Amino acid sequence: MHLAVGAGKDSNLYVVNRDSMGKFASNNSGIYQELAAALPGGVFSTPAYFNNTIYYGSVGGPIRAFSITNAKLSASAMHTTTNFQYPGATPSISANGNSNAIVWAVQNSNPAVLHAYDATNLTELYNSNQATGARDQFGAGNKFITPTVVNGRVFVGTPNGVAVFGLLP
Predict the structure, then answer these.
(1) Cβ neighbour number for residue 36 with a 10 Å cutoff
(2) Which of 31, 49, 69, 92 has the highest CB neighbour number within 10 Å of its CB?
(3) Which domains occur in the chain, in start order?
(4) Is 18 helix (H, G, I), strand (E, B) or coil?
(5) CA gap 114, 20 in Å, rounded
(6) CA–CA gap between residue 113 and residue 158 (Å, rounded)
(7) DSSP states of 139-153 as a string?
(8) Kindly report the CA angle at 49 between 126 and 32, in degrees rounded to 5?
(9) Which residues of 81-99 are buried (b: 16+ CB within 10 A; e: fewer)?
(10) Contact by Cβ (8 Å): 76, 88
């Protein structure tokens, strides 16, 4: 069986059997698992995945982490203390192999805020509002921002360019 995860405006989280999609069958919807109202506010983004955990950022809610056990998502989820207003957040993951994973997400606000969370417990490690002054500020948010991590740097699209975050010398 090949499974896929998906969510949308209805706030439900679905796991579907990719081998059994399409063609109406009154006795089988093709839905392997459904978590009703798991993502209040709905979802306009894709999830991130790391070490048997799915991360979703719904509209007006926190980043939620659903663990996977025996091919089923947990009914309850860990979550961040930060809520992400419209259109929610598209999380991304950086890691050193199977350890030291960080979940990255951007708040679409003015100024926009880049957040970094420990992937194991969603404790915030950093946000771009922590530095004094304008050092880590990068302007107004942009819809559907997905932080991209390459070679120890985090790249964030802005309305006018790209902000780059990395370790200070």
Answers:
(1) 10
(2) 92
(3) 3-165 (2.130.10.10)
(4) helix
(5) 39
(6) 11
(7) -S--TT---EEETTE
(8) 140
(9) ebbbeebbbbbbbbeeeee
(10) no
Give the closest residue to 56 by CA, choosing from 106, 13, 115, 114.
13
Consecutive sets of 10 residues in the chain, 169 residues long: mean pLDDT of each? 93 91 70 94 97 97 97 96 96 96 96 96 96 81 91 93 89
Q: Which pLDDT value is given to residue 28?
A: 66
Q: Locate tokens 């659903």: which residue?
A: 66
Rounded CA separation 79/163 (Å): 26
The Cα–Cα gap between 102 and 166 comes to 14
Amino acid identity for residue 13 in this structure = L
Total residue length of the chain: 169
Here the contacts of 118-124 (C-beta below 8 Å, separation 24 or greater) are 119/50, 119/51, 119/53, 119/55, 119/65, 119/93, 119/95, 121/78, 122/62, 122/63, 122/65, 122/78, 122/79, 122/80, 124/80, 124/81, 124/82
* Closest listed residue to residue 78, CA positions, set 69, 67, 93: 67
Supply the pTM of this predicted model: 0.93
Distance CA 116, CA 104 (A): 5
